[in-house]
Design a protein that fits this description.
mainly beta; 3-stranded antiparallel beta sheet
Length: about 160
């Protein structure tokens, strides 16, 4: 019997080592394969989580997406009338040779789609996109915002 309590109901794999607690797996009884795939099909899990950074500079909105292994022909950048920018693409499954012996398959294949509603101060007709070393950069120039004229009102009385 261990003198140190086991947190989260985990079982000790070694009674004499207080740090040898088996990892608590909260989703082990759910119908999907493991907690790492949480409701996301394994073949598209990396693309569903395509990471995109969005920064605003004084001149433009700049979005950068990490899309390693894809070339510009496999990626689409589209904009809808209601200022929605869509970035999508697909990585095809590699052709398999029957003589190949796979030891590990971790790279994912499948489609991805990310959508962003752009602010009203954007020049929709001047959007530019470039791809370099697996990073897609979309630049959306900002429109000049007319500053309102301030008129002083004389107070009578």
């Amino acid at each position: 019997m261990s003198l140190i309590p086991s947190f989260f109901g985990g079982q000790r794999s070694n009674v004499f080592d207080p740090f040898s607690v088996d990892i608590w797996e909260p989703f082990k009884d759910f119908p999907f394969s493991s907690s790492s795939s949480l409701f996301v099909p394994i073949e598209t899990s990396a693309f569903v989580n395509t990471r995109i950074d969005w920064k605003e500079t004084p001149e433009a909105h700049v979005l950068k997406a990490d899309i390693p292994g894809l070339n510009k022909e496999e990626v689409k950048v589209e904009v809808e009338d209601d200022r929605v920018l869509r970035i999508s693409g697909e990585r095809k499954i590699e052709k398999e040779d029957k003589n190949d012996k796979w030891h590990r398959v971790e790279r994912s294949s499948g489609k991805f789609l990310r959508s962003f509603r752009l602010p009203e101060n954007t020049k929709m007709d001047q959007i530019k996109a470039a791809m370099e070393n697996g990073v897609l950069t979309v630049t959306v120039p900002k429109a000049d915002v007319k500053k309102s004229d301030i008129k002083a009102i004389e107070i009578s009385g």
